[in-house]
Every structure is written in C-alpha cells, then in structure tokens.
Amino acid sequence: MPLSVARLFAGVLLASNLSLLAYGQELSAFPSATSKKGLQVEDVDDAIALGVKHAAFNLSVPSLISETPRDDDILWAHRGTTLRINAHYLASQTRRIKAMTDSGALVYLIVLNISGAHPDAQSALVHPAYDSSSPNGIGAFNTQTDSGARTFMAAMAFLADHFGRVTKPPKTEDDSRQAALEEWPNGRVVGYIIGNEVNSHWWWYNMGEIAIDDFVEQYESTVRLAAQAIHEHAPWARVYLSLEHHWSVRYSPANPLRSFPARDFLTKFAQVARSHGDFDWHIAFHPYPENLFDPEFWKDRQATWSMDTAKITFKNLKVLSDFLERDAMLHEGLPRRIILSEQGFHTPEGKNGEKTQAAAYCYAYRIADELPLVDAFILHRHIDHPKEGGLALGLWRFDERTGKRTSKKLIYDAFQKADSSDWEAAFDFALPIVGLTDWENAGRPPFEEPR
Fold first, then answer.
1. For the chain, what percent of residues have pLDDT higher than 70?
2. Residue 55 forms part of a structural domain
3. Which among 364, 333, 359 has a CA at the least distance from the CA of 348?
4. Which of the residues 222, 299, 401, 424 has an alpha carbon 20 to 30 A from that of 120?
C-alpha cells in the first residue's frame, strides 16, 4: 500500500468499542476452548454432533458486498465509505456461525477475494496486478488504492461489528447456558484469516508475478488494516497470516515470483511489521503431509528437525513452534499463536486405506495437542469433494452420482472421540500403524538432528 494510504488509517484506536469494554476484561481477551479439535464445517448439525470446538468457514468479501444494488441491501458506513451488504449472503453466513457459536465452538473466517464473485471487473476490491490466468481465481485484496483500502477496511469492520455484537449480559450470577447464548445474537467470530496460503500467492492470493519484498510490504499493509478495522469492534479477535507447508523451499522452484519459502516470508513480514510499528498478528499454518496423497506423514523425508527443513508437516511441527519463540518473532515478549487452519489426510485405495487415514489423524492430533503454542487443529475436509484433484480427505464419503454424502469413514469415530475421556481406547489401533508403543511425547524427535 502506498505510505499515504497506510498513514490514513494509522491512528485507529484498537479497542475503541466502549460498550464492549464496559462489559469487562473477559470481552477484551481471546476466548479459550476446551480442546483443540476443529473442522472446516460443511454440515453444521453433524459438526455439533461431532463435538467440534473450533469451526472454520470461507467468506468471500465480493459476495458480501453488493455492487449491483438490491432492495434488501444493508447499508454500512465506515469512515466515509458506504457499502451495500448482500443480505442473503450475510444471512447464510450468520446461520452457520450462530449455530456453531451457540454450540460452544470458536469460529474463524477465512477471508477470501474470489474473482468470480466480482460482477464488476473494475471493483475496488480487485488488485491492480491481479492476473486473470490465476489457476484458482482467488486474488489479493486491493489495498494499494485509496478506494480499495477504504472498501476492504469497511468490509472488515462490518464483519467484526456483525459477528462481535454483544447483547447486555445477564445481571444475575447464574451463568446459565441460555444466558450465555443470548450474548451473541449473530454468533461470534474470534479469528480472521486474511487470504489463503499466501506464500504460494500465484495460486491462492494472486497479485501477479511479484518479488517477495514487494509482496510482503503489500500483504503486511492489508493485514494491518484488517487488524485495525476488526479491533474497533472486536478487541478480542485475532488476525492470522495463512501459510502452506513449504518452509525453506518454495512451491514453484523455477519461479521465485510466484511463491516463497514460508520461513523467508515470516522473517520478512516480522521485520516489516516491526518497522511500521508492530501489531498483534498470528499464524494460520497448513502442515499437510509432504505428498498430499500419502497420509503417512511420519515417513516424510522432506520434513526434518532442522530450521532448514524443506517442509514443515506434522512430523516436525515443533520446528514452527520453536521458530516463533525466537526473539525476532516475539510480540510484547510473547510468541505468536498458531492455529492449524487447513490440513487433512487422504484415504488411499485398498482395504487399509481408511485405517491409515484415521491413524494419521490420531497421531497428528496428539502432536498438535502437545504443542502449547497451537490453539486449534482444524481438519480439512468434512466431506470428500469431487473436485479436489482426486484427494479424499473427508470424514464422510461422497457420491458424485447423487450429489450427497454416503458413509462415515473410520476417521469419523477417531475424530469424535479425540478430545473425550476415552480417546486412548479410540486411538490405540493407530499405535502400531504409526510405529509407536504409546502416545507420550508424540510430537518430539526420536533423535536429535543438528539445528
């Protein structure tokens, strides 16, 4: 973003919603969950039955904003910019988020700029360097122009207001379930993930071919604006960077302008943020196995215990945690928090395919559960998807002919019991598959490698 635009919003008070602050410190702090078990939810009723504690949903900002006026649009004014909010899209999102909030889950939004949702190619949201040949049609947010920055910030402020609106808490000391539900009339969003896998931006956050330093400058401005707008209305909420598992290497080895190593990206992002005045940002990481079609991540060869590891998968997830504890990565003396916001395990063909998938989940859950900086392990997917390149990552199978889910896989039971008192009995089958005799210290190296 041009410096003038960044400075335009630099004075935003991060916790300015006095009605929230009046309710007490508990509404200014990030809420806690009873476990790390999470899911990218497709069927809300099933997610509630599964006992999901962290729910993630995609949200398309272009779908939220009506560029073609409708009679039932909601008008939202923010710092001189007025948006028309698509009431139908908002209602569909609110129903899901409200239901998961009422169940006790923490809800996160993956905030996307999906190009196909732009009825007007000249939309203020479209990044000036967006390349329409981008494989997945997901662009970077335009915070390079004044109108783009204002539109983006207004949209983020609207989401934080709508999904952070609090009714008057009960005056009695009885903290009943019903009283708690009444506090969040639209549901509550606690985390906003800005974009998707931005270190492989050509595919998932496109702003054309661009050098890492230029990309980081622009993305840092976008995340900063998001944090400022969100914290006006939801001071407890966290803002996350989204990164995939390429750590010291990049996804496109022959083209440094289309992807970057996550380690280099994080290092530069922290430097840029600090140079502009550090702020509270966190990590949404995707530690898929090195081969997405092979769930046996414990055999990954590109995942080592060195800070120079090519990839970070569940096998060496502690490397990420250790990296964030370095002085250069700290914020106010504390490490950034981690959510694992998208990762899953393919179901290989053959009689043992479902068992291998389920065992991978069991092992991964124990690893995530042992790492103090990891707040959530959000599984992808809920249901197999026919257009995911042949991957079968779901808890449920899907029938393309009927367009409906069919049967639960073995992973379903393991997922349901992962945070229950009888998790060990549910997970025992996995021990010989993953090569362990018990789950103690599951996420630590079996031997020390030079760092």
1. 88
2. yes
3. 359
4. 222
Domain harbouring 185, CATH code: 3.20.20.80
235 or 401, higher pLDDT: 235
Domain, as residue range, for 391: 3-434
Do 317 and 443 touch, CB atoms closer than 8 A? Answer: yes
- What would you report as the CA-atom Rg of the chain, rounded to the nearest whole angstrom? 21
Specify the pLDDT at position 239. 99
Please write the tens of the pLDDT for every residue from 81-103: 999 999 999 999 999 999 999 99
Residue 238 CA: distances (Å) to CA of 91, 158, 375: 23, 16, 12
Which residues have a Cβ under 8 Å from the Cβ of 7 and sit 6 or more positions away? none
* Contact (Cβ atoms closer than 8 angstroms) between residue 347 and residue 392: yes
Residue 92 maps to a domain: yes
- In 115-129, which positions are buried (b, 16+ CB within 10 angstroms) versus exposed (e)? bebbeeeebbbbbeb
Q: Is residue 446 part of a domain?
A: no
Report which of 6, 4, 13 is spatially closest to residue 220, judged by C-alpha positions.
6
How many domains does the chain fold into? Answer: 1
